[in-house]
Amino acid sequence: MGTSPHRPRARISLEPSSSHTMYLYVLLACVLWGLESHSAPMKIATVASRDNHTAVCAEIQRELMADDITYNGSFKRPQNTSEELCYGEFIKDFISTLKNISTNYNKDCHIEKVYKDMTHLTRICPKLNETKSHKKCTTETSNFLKFKEALQRVVISIEGWKSCKRIKGIL
Question: Which domain of life is it from (predicted)?
Fold first, then answer.
């Protein structure tokens, strides 16, 4: 019989080597550190944007665009959305209608968010507090889509305001 060279058997281990394990720990630490550093500024930005009328208006617009539910019935809306002196009265009507919708159709998370944001907007923007205008603020009833369009136009107008300063003692 011939002699065959003796080969050492290859060892296959299912356990990772210590250097491989260390690499995974370092990778995991980097990923977690990255998540931590990205989430902290987001929290700060969210809190700061809650007191900024333009950010709240932008959020309202996003929610209105995302809402694809159409409601039956008649809804009170401004006849002319460019009457800024009437915005206090119009906003009061919008909020009342949004509250009714969110109460009766509690599965519509977008309308619920718009209702809460509109209420918050009146707290951070004293211009939106209802004032007795010398002008006759006229409203009409319409379908939901026209109500929603009027609300969007008013919110876009408010978003464009340069100033919406808070009064001390509010919030």
Answer: Eukaryota
Q: Which residues of 27-62 are buried (b: 16+ CB within 10 A; e: fewer)?
A: eeeeeeeeeeeeeeeeeeeeeeeeeebebbbbbbbe
Read off the CATH number of the domain in which 83 is found.
1.20.1250.10
Q: How far apart are CA 69 and CA 80, in angstroms?
A: 24
pLDDT 10s digits, 45-54: 444 456 688 9
Query: Which structural domain range is residue 76 located in?
Result: 54-159
Q: State the pairing for strand pair 75-78/139-142.
A: antiparallel
Output the DSSP codes for 82-96.
Answer: T-GGGHHHHHHHHHH
Does 156 have pLDDT greater than 80? yes
